[in-house]
Amino acid sequence: MRHRAVDLQQFDNVLAPYDRYPEARVGADNGSDPLTATSPERATDEPSAGVASVADQDPGVRQILREQFDYYDARANEYDDVWYRRGRYDLGAAGNERWFAETARLEAAVAAADIGGDVLELACGTGIFTRHLVQRADRLTALDASPAVLAINAERVGDRSVTYDQADVFEWEPPDLMRYNHIFFGFFLSHIPPHRLDAFWERLERWLVPGGRVWFCDDAPGVDERPSNPGETVADGPDWAHRRTLHDGRSFTIVKICHAPETLTAWLAARGWRADIAPTGEEFIFGSAVPAAPSG
How many CB atoms lie within 10 A of CB 19? Predict the structure, then answer.
């Protein structure tokens, strides 16, 4: 059984469920219905102490976050097998043809995006998108928690102008209060636990220069109906917990939440962002967002 998409409007209009701590919920019960709420107070320019919340005090949540880091570090050498449909990820002739047509559309959209100036890429991974961003950026900072994927990224991109930084995205702060014209992340939003989303977007706003923009792409809802992302749901775990296994048989629990464009757009609007998000086909979403009012 594959992980199921999470509809952002279900569970009484919460973005995704986490019921053990009511304070961790994002939704109508806490006065932040994505369709009606006013924007929360904007972030300040002061560095944060990370985005940990009360839900992070739960040992089960902490374990999932640790396993997610371990998974992507251990998976570095096989990460691209999914993108290029190698080995057990081969979808067959027809499936591969459809997949590669859509990955080509997504990569073309990223390459054509109006991204320039000082650019920050979060969770840069093995460089699938870094290689496009470096062509447009005046200065590019590529951030990831995994030293293994950073090494692959640097070898693939082969551009010494890229600044690589190994750090936990949830704890990192730009050096010297640096601000960016554009921030990009690919296939990262779906790995953020729901109780961390508000603080994450607050930090993104603080990291942007006035008029700056956030760009992102990710898996589209409906992966449970497609063989694109093999994995399993976690019995008795949160809806966003998902079990994946590496080639060597090791298994890890990670976060996986697939956001629908229309509901993610509404959720962001309730928090002071103007977003333009659309599917690229069946597999992916691609979009950008800007603060609705100048930050600072």
Answer: 11
Per domain, the residue ranges of the chain are 53-238+257-291
Proportion of the chain in helix, strand, coil states, percent, rounded to 5: 35, 20, 45
Query: What CATH homologous superfamily does 53-238+257-291 map to?
Result: Vaccinia Virus protein VP39 (3.40.50.150)
End-to-end CA distance of the chain: 46
Q: Give the C-alpha separation, 29 to 291, whole Å.
A: 25
Collect all residues with Cβ–Cβ distance below 8 Å to 154 and sequence separation of at least 6: 127, 162, 164
d(CA 260, CA 279): 9
Phi, psi of 290 (to 5 degrees): -130, 145
What is the rounded distance in angstroms from the CA atom of residue 88 to the CA atom of residue 272?
A: 42
Instruction: Give residue for tokens 């994927």.
Output: 149
Torsion over CA of 61, 65, 67 and 68, rounded to 10 degrees?
Answer: 130
Asked if 229 contacts 79 with a C-beta cutoff of 8 angstroms, the reply is no
Alpha-carbon distance of 110 to 217, in angstroms, equals 9
Average pLDDT estimate for 143-157: 97
CA dist., res. 5 & res. 219, Å (int): 10
Which range, 12-16, 44-48, 232-236, 257-261, is most confident? Answer: 257-261
Angle at 130 between CA 200 and CA 65, to 5 degrees: 40
pLDDT at 34: 29
Specify whether the CB–CB gap between 114 and 184 falls below 8 A.
Answer: no
Contact 26, 198 (CB under 8 A): yes
